[in-house]
UniProtKB/TrEMBL annotation:
It comes from the Bacteria. Keywords: Methyltransferase, Transferase. InterPro entries: Methyltransf_25, SAM-dependent_MTases_sf, Thump-like. Residues 102-169 form the Methyltransferase domain. This is Methyltransferase.
Length: 392
């Protein structure tokens, strides 16, 4: 959906009926369905409905089928919106901080505004793009949240946030050529968002997880969030009451949060019986030392984020493997070992190795009923293969 007229037409009784009719259309059938529907409905409405149905299908992964099936989207809006799991967690944190009202600056199609409202927080949602604003408004209405969310079309740089308990900024981070890594190239730039944060009692600024730690303001708490093992975003918090400079890794579902305790880098030690692969949020937050301490472990190499230990310990912050073999990097030797063990299902993981997992799998041609995991990495500087299996 690209314009306001399409959105309005989809919200009429005819548009709603068409949206229902095309909801589960298989992409392969789309042409036939469109031809049939055009006999009874305007062509623009039919294509708007089919386009919206496609966007809703894409949005299910972020919003779940029930909400995605009632919400409206633009292609950029689906892409840029915060997934419900992360938005709900963040809204919960706002609520715990005693926040009752938030100015959501750069609200997009309303991913965060919806979660904030559902947490019982009053929201002023602002975006400068007219279609996006109309979609956000349609979404809060569709989900019965219009009483808590006021949607405004404006440039956030001119919005007065006085009187709000907190400010939330989720800047646009995609340029014409993929993701933008320079925080000053965000729209609005990070420096503006930090200034806006300084004017509110509390604030949260969403940033790309790849942000260099040096770019994090000293008075912020930085949080990296992963969902089911995938790093989704980082947030700079202000006014949380936690020591400025604190760093946190939060794993969803859960949530499980690990806070920095200022430990030095872990020691390098020989590979023990267990290998732990820290969650991406832990690695991005530079909290591998905290996890190594919990596991009574050390690193396999000073530059590699694999923790090795002698004991199996349960931790939500890393996936544990039992290591059965350690070999210098040598494809022939690996092939022989896997043949001897009758390994047909091989998972290849790598850190600190340029070898492509698919290439390796082709070369060793795994065959047999057993499964194994091979880690291509460096151990004390030397290219190494560690073979093992995940701990149950
Ligand atoms: C990453 S999206 C926000 C997504 C939103 N949090 C969600 O979950 O749906 C960023 C939004 O910022 C808006 N934007 C960028 N610069 C802006 C500005 N100066 N004023 C208002 N909106 C702006 C864009 O139109 C875009 O919709």
């Amino acid at each position: 959906m690209n314009d306001l007229a399409s959105l309005s037409s989809l919200r009429t009784p005819e548009g709603r009926a068409l949206l229902d009719a095309v909801r589960d259309t298989d992409p392969a059938e789309e042409l036939a369905v469109a031809t049939r529907l055009r006999r009874e409905h305007p062509a623009e409405l039919v294509s708007a409905a089919l386009g919206q149905a496609r966007l809703r299908q894409r949005a299910v992964a972020k919003f779940g089928a029930a909400d995605a099936g009632r919400m409206f989207f633009t292609p950029n809006g689906v892409e840029q919106s915060t997934r419900a799991s992360v938005a709900t967690y963040r809204a919960g944190r706002m609520k715990e901080l005693g926040v009752g009202s938030v100015a959501d600056l750069c609200c997009g199609i309303g991913g965060d505004a919806i979660a904030l409202a559902r947490a019982g927080i009053r929201v002023l949602a602002v975006d400068r793009d007219p279609v996006t604003v109309a979609v956000a408004r349609a979404n809060v209405e569709a989900l019965g949240l219009a009483g808590l969310v006021e949607v405004h079309e404006a440039d956030v740089m001119g919005v007065d946030t006085t009187g709000y308990d907190a400010v939330f900024v989720d800047p646009a981070r995609r340029g014409g050529r993929g993701r933008i890594f320079d925080p000053e190239a965000y729209s609005p730039p990070l420096s503006w968002a930090v200034e806006a944060a300084g004017k509110a009692p509390r604030a949260a600024l969403k940033i790309a997880p790849g942000i260099p730690h040096e770019a994090i303001p000293e008075d912020a708490e930085a949080e990296w969030i992963s969902d089911s093992g995938d790093v989704k975003e980082a947030v700079l918090w202000f006014g949380t009451g936690i020591a400025p400079g604190a760093v946190r890794a939060t794993l969803l579902p859960g949530p499980r949060s690990l806070l920095s305790s200022g430990l030095p880098d872990p020691e390098v030690r020989p590979v023990g019986r267990y290998l732990y692969e820290p969650d991406g949020a832990v690695i991005r937050a530079h909290l591998v030392a905290e996890v190594a301490q919990q596991l009574d472990g050390g690193l396999v190499d000073a530059t590699i984020a694999y923790v090795t230990a002698d004991e199996p310990r349960a931790t939500p912050y890393a996936t544990a493997y039992e290591i059965t073999d350690q070999l210098p990097f040598n494809v022939k030797k690996l092939k022989a070992l896997l043949r001897e063990r009758e390994v047909g299902i091989l998972t290849v993981k790598k850190r600190g190795s340029a070898v492509e997992p698919e290439e390796l799998r082709k070369k060793v041609k795994p065959q047999g009923p057993n499964s194994a995991t091979v880690f291509l990495t460096r151990v004390a500087g030397a290219p190494t293969m560690l073979v093992g299996h995940p701990l149950g």
